[in-house]
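Case study 2.
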Amino acid sequence: MTLKAILVAFAIATATVAANAHEVAKGPNGGKVVDIAGHHLEFTHTPAELTIYTTDEADKPLATAGGKGRAVIQSGGKTAQLQLAPAEPNKLVAKLDAPLASGAIVVVSTTFSDGHTTQARFTVD
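Prediction:
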């Protein structure tokens, strides 16, 4: 598969995600929050780490133990993929090789221990 085909598939996937999820507000950890299928995913990052906080419709923490996730980052014409690991009590985290650049697009896919899956798209400020 060529890079062009991968980028076209990425664009189609993120367009679908955008239609199914919407940003609701800033979260309690200062990040962008997307409401999707009764779950809230809050995106935060530091220069060394990307974190997704998970909560339910009532903003109560959703345990991530037994779950998993993936983040696809598109920035500066390059695409990187990170595995998100569960961290207590309600986080999925990944180490970053470099700080996220302003304007980077981060597409997050999660699978909870009950099998429920979500996808959300964030843009780094």
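The chain has one domain: 3-123.
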